[in-house]
Amino acid sequence: NQQGTRIDMCIVGEPSSDKKLGDVVRVGRRGSLNGRMRFVGEQGHVAYPDLACNPIHAAITALSQLVTKIWDTGNAYFPPTTFQISNLNAGTGAANVIPGELDVRFNFRFNTEHSAEDLQAAVENHLLNHDRRIEVIFDWQLSGQPFLTKKGRLLDAVQTAIRSVASLDPELSTSGGTSDGRFIAPTGAEVVELGPVNESIHKINECVRISELEPLAKMYQNILFRLLC
Questions:
Q1: How many domains does the chain contain in total?
Q2: For 80-138, where are the alpha helices, taking DSSP H only?
Q3: What percent of the chain has pLDDT over 90?
Q4: Most CB contacts within 10 A, which of 6, 69, 81, 130?
């Protein structure tokens, strides 16, 4: 940072436990890559398809292949990379009009077997073989790179503290969405996520149990004691 301070270790307190406080510790996260494809064809009347170019028809096969493609099988620390289409939009709703454009939004959750650049190139190269009458315009937004914290002083202290306070052996996981840890990990710091149960995450009335706060504070205190004393 601007002050020249280097972070050695970081505990992210986002809700990360699954069923019980401390049952899961996140030691990394998958990367997240958002993409948008605009298939540009030619609008026309459904009765005269030869006078139009339907971007939906042109995109269906290519999109199906992307959805069913096995991008990798994961590795010892991460599950396989996933590709999910989150939104499709074309036309105005009229039943007798071939739309001129199809807008596709999608997301990759990717592991350390790939880089964002690899995935972008794979998708764009795949679409090179589509109907040549259709133009495809890409837009990409990288939300975060994958990161992993392997066993070290911080993780040892976290596991020991959870055993001491909750009598649990936590699962070490990299599943779930992105977290603020993605901003700290590139500095070279050890990053571990330990927080409340996430059962209501992004739901209406998102909350944590009051009963979890005191034992969670004890875990944090225990971790600091083991690292600093």
A1: 2
A2: 116-126
A3: 84
A4: 81
